[in-house]
Amino acid sequence: MNDSFHYLSMANHMMVQKKLMEQLKDTGLTLGQPKVLDYLKDHDGASQKEIAAGCLIEAGSLTSILNRMEEKGLLERKMLNGNRRTFHIFMTESGKKNQKLVEETFEKIEETALNNVSEEEQKVFMEIFLRIYRNLAEIK
Which of 72, 73, 76 is nearest to 88 (CA)? Predict the structure, then answer.
């Protein structure tokens, strides 16, 4: 196993995705959908543009994800204030139920990932992890 930053970043991301999808297999959720439900937890009624930015998903990919989620009855699109150009995305009861499962699963994965890591180490790690994200976000 390679212990470079880029390799471990990719490996950790893939491991979280794998564990998440294994735990959620009975829900029928597919890649990308848990992230959208997680975002809508705190931003129910967001526009598609806001969801794309919040989830770091390209607009075209998000359209496909939202279409499948709408077909499954997890969310619905609504026009607000008669604005036909912008639809707002709301979770249905089924979407909210699945969102709770996603939230619980993320919590279990984080608990497992941070097992044997002290609270102080976690705090320092998260500060550095956020700094790394901000550094990368500045690259044009």
Answer: 76
- Close Cβ partners of 46 (under 8 Å, ≥ 6 residues apart): 39, 40, 54, 88, 89
Tokens of 89: 């995305």
Residue 87: helix, strand or coil by DSSP?
A: strand
SS3 content of the chain, % helix, strand, coil (to 5): 70, 10, 25
Q: What's the whole-model pTM score?
A: 0.87
Under DSSP, the state recorded for 26 is: G
* Euclidean distance between CA atoms 97 and 83, whole angstroms: 29
Instruction: For 55-67, write each residue's pLDDT tens digit.
Output: 999 988 999 999 9
CB neighbour list of residue 50: distance below 8 Å, 6 or more residues apart: 43
What percent of the chain is predicted at pLDDT more than 70?
99
- The DSSP letter of residue 120 is H
CB 63 within 8 A of CB 52: no
CA separation for the pair 37, 16 (Å, rounded): 16
At 33 the pLDDT is 97
